[in-house]
Structures are given as C-alpha cells and as structure tokens.
Write a structure and sequence with these properties.
Layout (H helix, E strand, L loop, with lengths): L18 H12 L19 E4 L3 E4 L4 E8 L3 E8 L4 E2 L1 E3 L5 E7 L5 E8 L5 E7 L8 E4 L4 E3 L5 E5 L6 H6 L1 E5 L5 E7 L5 E7 L8 E6 L17 E7 L3 E6 L4 E6 L2 E7 L11 E7 L2 E9 L10 E9 L6 E4 L17 E3 L1 H10 L5 E5 L3 E4 L13 H5 L5
Amino acid sequence: MTRIRRPRTRLRTATLTGTAVLAAAALTACNGGGGGSEGSGAAKEAPQTKVSVSASGKQAKAGEPVKVTLTEGDKLDSVTVKDTKGGTLTGQISADGRSWTSARTTSPGTSYTVEAKAAGATATKADFTTEAADKVNKLTMAPGKNTTIGIAHPVSIVFDHPVKNKADVEKHLKITTSNDTEGSWGWMTDYSGKDRVDWRPKDYWKPGTKVTLNADLNGVNSGKGGGWFVRDYQTNFTIGKNQIVKVDLDNHRLKLIRDGETVKDVPMSAGTPGGDKASWRGKTVLMSKEGTINMRSETVGLGDAYDKMVDFSMRLTWSGMYAHAAPWNAGYFGSANKSSGCIGMSDTNAQFVYDAVQVGDPFEVTGSDAKGTQALNNGYGNWNVSWADWQSKSAL
C-alpha cells in the first residue's frame, strides 16, 4: 500500500490582542493542547475599581463634602469630582489610601461626576445631582475689580438676603495683601437695611499695596431666609496715593494733604450748625466722584429748601453729605457754616479738589459745628470705631 505523506505546515508566531488571544487559546484547547504551557499566555484584565460615594441620586444633599471610600483593593490612586459647569472639587486621599474627601462642599442644583481609580485597577465613574436651592443669595462688592483707590477704603460686601450663618460665611472670605496688612472683618446692617461685612485694616492702607478678595462661597448656606450661594466671587485693587482731606468746621477750611505736605488749603462753608442741616464730623471716606448732579432737599428730609444742579460733587455719606462747588454760598467761604449739610467751595477750588482726590481718600472732619459723628454704616464710617471694637464685630 502506498502511503501518502501530508505536508507539514510551519507555524508562524504572531502577537494577538483582545478577542484574538481568547480565540487562539480556545483553538489550542480543541486541538489537544490542554495542560501545556502554550495555552496560558492570555492577558488578564484588571479589575474595575469599587468604591462607595457619600452622595447619590438626583436629590443629593447640597452643602456637604464628597467622600469616596474604597470598598475593594489596596489604595486609591486618584479621585476627581467635576461638575457640568466646568468646576472641580479638589480633595485629598487619606493617609491609609482608603478614602478621599473634598476640600469644599457641593453646590445646590448641580450635577457632578466622580471618577476614582485604585492601584492595579481600572477607573470607575459615578454621577449624582444635588437638590435645587429654595433661594439664591448674591452679593455686591466694593471696591471694583482692577481699580486704584485711596488709603481709607474698606473691602465691603453687601448681601441681597439675610446672612444668619455669619461665621460660616466669614470663614469663606479671604483677603490677601502684598505686604501682609493686618485687618479684620466686621459685620453691620448697611444703610439700605441689608446685611453687610467690611474688612478694614488696623491703620490706613500703605500706598502701593495690592489687595485681593476671594469669596469662595459656592455651596455655602447663608441661613434661614437667606438661601444658598451658588458661585464664587473675586475682586482685586491697588492702593493709590497717600492723601488725606482735612475739614475744619470751626475754622471753615479744607486742606488736601499728600505725603504729609499740604497741597491745597481752601476756604469753605459747611452745614449750618444747630439742627438737621449741620454736617457730620468724623473720619469719613470718599465713596464716589459723581460730577454734576441734581440735588433736591426732599431726598434728605429737608423739605423744599433747594433743588439745584451741583458741579464737582463728591459723595461722603449715604445720607447725602457731599463736598462740592457752591458758588451761591460764596459770601460765607472761610467765615461761617451756612449750607444744608454739605461742604461747599468755589468752582475753582472744588474742581481742583475733585480732580486731585481718589475714591477711598479719607475726609477727616473735625470741629464743634456738627450734629454728631458719622454712623458706621452711613457710607464708610469704619474709622470712627476703635480697633478693638472693630475686631469684636467679627463673627469669628
């Protein structure tokens, strides 16, 4: 009998990945390769990271830190928590590597994605959404961003709604200065009736100081009736020239002093003493330079005494005390106080002062011809409070 010889097929080596490896392994087993070393080269998939997350579902509690705990495996390699607005909650892995906790709390009405990866395992994801806020609180800050202001201007925040959790809110307000300026927060009711908190240096700012306020309030609850903050705020400004305006009510003079030297000394006439038309004394702060404005006496409770267009108007209080041009009062400049509460000068002198001063410059008003000391909240009366008393107004 003739024997037929089958040609031998030379096996070529190849690199197989994924399902190809699994198919090759199965084929070898079918051809009797079981038990040999050739069938043991299949890649072993890494297990998926298994964790538990402190928040879940569509109505997770807002205002809480996120905690991620490893349920299987040795240690966490990384954890990220991002929201759909592009924000990130930073945090830290515990010393034993078994958990991660966010440094900040969650914001209401926000969707988050958690991605966690353990050593030797593939990453896993989890999603949750926090409950919506019943009310949102907002705020207004002064000075404005990228401004240059005078040496007496405080950092001032006025809130839209009441702030009951003052200590918690204050913890999230951070002042950074270029020269480690000492200062403190102080709470008050603003002239508008709203809650307000100011940061005042112990002494007037040093010229050239750079200041930044970071109000990291996103996810902070302001308390009953106030609602949640749902964003962070930031402003920065620079302290300008070293200027003080000194107003002497008794001698009827106004002096502009720069770097300790008198730049201008002008005669003026302030508020008529002995009643509601008298001026306030104390350390006030130039709030704004408003130029030519209409002043009407009924807006400050003085009936129909005046209705005028007034030039070079510089606001000192919310109650309506200004320094401005008052040519109609020229006969009293330097000799008597006969205005309805403001500090009046000639057109020429008022323009000089207006052009020279900065918002935030202190106007130090002294003398007996006054109706009292400017209140803390009537503009920026912060400097009429001692440093010890000011510090006591902090919620911390």
